[in-house]
Amino acid sequence: MKQTIIQTERLILRALRDSDAPIIMRLAGNPNISKTTRNIPFPYEDGMAESWIESSRTMANTGKSLTYAIELEEDNILIGSIGLIEINKSQAELGYWVGEQYWSNGYCTEATKALIKFAFESLALNKVKAEYLTSNIASGKVMKKSGMSYIGTIKKECRVGEIDSVDSYEISNI
């Protein structure tokens, strides 16, 4: 599936590039990113960013997921990533992370709203789901501000061997 560039007021959502690997390594390698996400490991080791970029490209080619770099439009600085995984004919799951120095600026909410709109208008999906670690209150605020509704809380394995409380949200295109 070809990844369309999505532009917002302050952001550009674009396909990941091989040249993004060092920045991803630096941003995702922050232990506070791992603590706030379900899947980003710590330590974030050499080669992980390159492998992730390649697997994201492969998954996009199969149509099963779309992963975007979140870039500041003003100066083309990569600040994080957002994507849709497990895309099928009617729904997908949303996931995102933003580098710690970019927190509390509304970037994640802006990117999330844009990707949800893209999912409904361009991919013709009926539903977008998302989950976040209950301890990551900011991520829950992003989902609420993006129009998503709370579904429930469950215990779930996050990262390798860790069990955490996870809140589930969704939004429907009705």
Walk me through the structure.
The chain is of the alpha+beta class. The protein has a domain at 6-125: Aminopeptidase (3-Layer(aba) Sandwich), CATH 3.40.630.30. The protein is 30% helix and 34% strand. It contains five helices and eight strands, in the order E-E-H-H-H-E-E-E-H-E-H-E-E. The chain has helices at 21-28, 31-36, 48-62, 107-121, 137-145; strands spanning 6-7, 11-15, 66-72, 77-85, 91-98, 127-133, 149-158, 162-172. An eight-stranded mixed beta sheet has the order 1-2-3-4-5-6-8-7, sandwiched between helices. A hairpin with a 3-residue loop joins strand 7 and strand 8. The radius of gyration is 15 Å and the shape is globular.
Keywords:
alpha+beta, 8 strands, 8-stranded mixed beta sheet, 174 residues, Aminopeptidase, single chain
Strand and helix map with partners:
Layout: E1 6-7, E2 11-15, H1 21-28, H2 31-36, H3 48-62, E3 66-72, E4 77-85, E5 91-98, H4 107-121, E6 127-133, H5 137-145, E7 149-158, E8 162-172
Parallel strand pairs: 5-6
Antiparallel strand pairs: 1-2, 2-3, 3-4, 4-5, 6-8, 7-8
Helix pairs in contact: 1-3, 4-5
